[in-house]
Amino acid sequence: MAKPNQKKKSNPEVKRQQQQAYKQKEQERQRKTMRNLIIGTVAVIVVVVALIVLIPNNKTEGVQTTFDYSQMPVKGDANAPVKIVEFGDFKCPVCKLFNEQIVPKIQADFVENGTVSMHFANFPFIGPDSTTAALAAESVYHQNNDAFWKYLDEIYTNQKDENTNWATPDYLVQLAENAKLGIDTTKLRQDIDNKTYADQVNAQYKKGQELNIPGTPSIFINGVQYTGDLGDYNAIKAAIEKAQAEAKNQTGSEG
């Protein structure tokens, strides 16, 4: 795919075409990299689930980028030496699997002991209601950081087919009420309708474009894009441990 033309990215038609291109590339990537995890019943195969292998991006691999972590939801100690940023789309089925199967392991092994913090950035490219979901999530985050993560889980748990426009304001508010987030859901609805946090969502989307991420989920570990298999937790763990060692060495040299 050609590199997005940054001079035209403010044009709604160009943005629509870019989102469609990302969607087509993501669907092709998923078809090529599905790994079967077959769950059986007594005599019937029930479901095949998948996690993906990110297509290596030589332009960004090993290149350090910076993030304003203070403007993102954070899970764990904000001062942790290793910070992971996930670019996600709430309509992305692989994001759902990543957050259900990989994130809990990262949390158990690293977040809970204070050595890693996790952050989330919106990259809504699948459909118009991807942006609606992003606006809702930003609203929840600005009311309560901890509620954001509970809301993220609620959306993924109740995620529907990516080819349908299911992330409506009514549905997103209902999910927030069902999850008992302890936030003002009237304000949530107003923020969605008024696009209160559109600038923040757009800025996160543009950041992903600038980094040439191939789709969602895409993760960065201390500012370096992880280009390995997102379904291979051992590989992700090794990358985190490498970042930990580098952070420790840097701290030691500064001391």
UniProtKB/TrEMBL annotation:
<keyword id="KW-0732">Signal</keyword>
<keyword id="KW-0472">Membrane</keyword>
<dbReference type="Pfam" id="PF13462">
    <property type="entry name" value="Thioredoxin_4"/>
</dbReference>
<dbReference type="GO" id="GO:0016853">
    <property type="term" value="F:isomerase activity"/>
</dbReference>
<protein>
    <submittedName>
        <fullName>Protein-disulfide isomerase</fullName>
    </submittedName>
</protein>
<keyword id="KW-0676">Redox-active center</keyword>
<feature type="transmembrane region" description="Helical">
    <location>
        <begin position="37"/>
        <end position="55"/>
    </location>
</feature>
<feature type="domain" description="Thioredoxin">
    <location>
        <begin position="49"/>
        <end position="245"/>
    </location>
</feature>
<keyword id="KW-0560">Oxidoreductase</keyword>
<dbReference type="InterPro" id="IPR012336">
    <property type="entry name" value="Thioredoxin-like_fold"/>
</dbReference>
<keyword id="KW-0413">Isomerase</keyword>
<comment type="similarity">
    <text>Belongs to the thioredoxin family. DsbA subfamily.</text>
</comment>
<feature type="region of interest" description="Disordered">
    <location>
        <begin position="1"/>
        <end position="28"/>
    </location>
</feature>
<keyword id="KW-1015">Disulfide bond</keyword>
<dbReference type="InterPro" id="IPR036249">
    <property type="entry name" value="Thioredoxin-like_sf"/>
</dbReference>
<keyword id="KW-1133">Transmembrane helix</keyword>
<keyword id="KW-0812">Transmembrane</keyword>
<dbReference type="InterPro" id="IPR013766">
    <property type="entry name" value="Thioredoxin_domain"/>
</dbReference>
